[in-house]
Amino acid sequence: MTEIHKQYRQALTPKELYTERITRLTEEIRQLNKYNRLVVVLELSAIALAIGCVVGYTMWNNVAALVVAVLFIAAYVTIRWRDSRNSRMAEEKESLRSVYQKELNYLSGDFSGFASGEQYINPRHAFTLDLDIFGPQSLFHRINRTVTTGGSDFLAKELAETRVRTIDEIEAQREAIHELSEKEPLRAAFMAQGQGRQIDTTDILEALHAVEQMQVSRLAAHCLTHIAAIGSIVVFYVLLVAAIFGPLSGTFPMLWVLFQILAVYLLFGRTLKRINQSINIILPRLGTYVNMIMLIVTADLKSREGRDIISQLSADKQDALKSFRLLKGIINALDQRNEIWVPISNALYLADYFIVRRFLLWQDRYMMHIEEWIAAVSHFDALVSMATFRYNEPAATDAKLVDADEVVYEAHGLYHPFLGVKAVRNDFTIADQHYYIITGANMAGKSTFLRSIGINYVLACCGMPVFADSLRVSLFSLFSSMRTTDDLAHGISYFNAELLRLQQLIEICRQNRHTLIILDEILKGTNSLDKLNGSRLFLQSVSALPITGIIATHDLELSKMEEEYPAHFHNYCFEIQLSDEITYTYRLSEGVARNQNATYLLRNILKTALE
Cα 268 from chain centroid? Predict the structure, then answer.
């Protein structure tokens, strides 16, 4: 790509680029389809003319007509090959257009083209349920572009990681994400591999492990059987030539053929059947794996993680691309076997023996590396998703990671990624082992702000961009309690569920040096006075642990803890303006909220309903 083209591409916004790509691909597909219709006419014409020339030769014994017939047949074969190639090109372009259309839909708020990750929802997780990490309209739903289930699992693990990472780990991943975000054609080509349906990594691994654990004869892999097989084939052709051109009876080559067919069937027939049953399941997706590995190993990646993935897939003695191509060839050979061709192929060149031998040699050389290769592809798959998210969100920025043995969280212009650039931004600084009590009316922005704190920290820890003018954070454990629910099936009431969640919080905090907790209405499952006393007791108790906290509450009495413990407790609020209408500013400020809206809103509803 020329420097001018690079600058042109960089000047386009994501929406402009996707629109331009869709327009171009639509025109190219139209041209290919138009050409394909012409090809059908040319194919029929070539066949008709070839038949006509053959008829002419038989009627008039004209050698020239036979030569022309051969030329028309050659033309038909060439046209047919071009037709097949153009059909593949059209399919590839359709897949690419689908990729760009889904990205364009994403920019319009439509995520229906991507899996939402509902299978990863875990109410017991430290923070993912409260922060909308998984499920419809979630963070995962916005990021996920994975082609394989292994890539999906890798991405989910990154977003749900509770282990405190190191700065080096995060920066290495951020470097890889940044590099891939600038390689739009590579990302699009990779994502296009999954437009048919997602590859089930587990199915592939289980099929290959089933073959690995099968008790099959290793006879075909032995060098002596290889020599014997080649010798047998040579003997057959010597006997055949002697029968055709010499005095030898045709009975001898026929008997030898029967011997070969019987020997191969008895020695390797059952082994072939068992191998075929186990690995035939992966044939439809194996070509896609080959394409993905080809895209990865031929990519000019400079980042540390990118180079590591390529080295895992392309080491001299562990060449994943070569391995998967060989396996694809073996499975194709198995797939093409049929009742008529099997005895003929075994008679002519002992086909079944060599299929078994190829597979056993493949298994000995490559099987031990399969899990490592699939893990590398899954890793790259997840990186492509994260890089696409980065590209699609140019307004986001990188967090500054601080090497500090304490909780550091300094945000300027922070906002929730789901709200977009029109969201109201807030500044907020969290000091280690300090507690911030946030009050405000219903719908004033408390819960959204709490989630903004948590979800941006998750993004920062994954090496992805954050939604703030600037964000400076250290690395610590994160725990939230915002969406506690009852579990009637197990006899757990709402209040009991809250207690269990707080108990889980304490246990996790004891295991970590520093933890930021995000709480929304502690003990809301009990009466007001009990709730206030319980909340005060809880905060007083955990303040002795290495915990830093943000607590949203409607209970204004809880804000008096700032008066009792001014060194560690601080009041912030989201205030509203009450007049003829309610004005929500969504601006965070110091102090305690004074205006509430529940009675005001209810009065308006009742007035409207009863008039």
Answer: 39
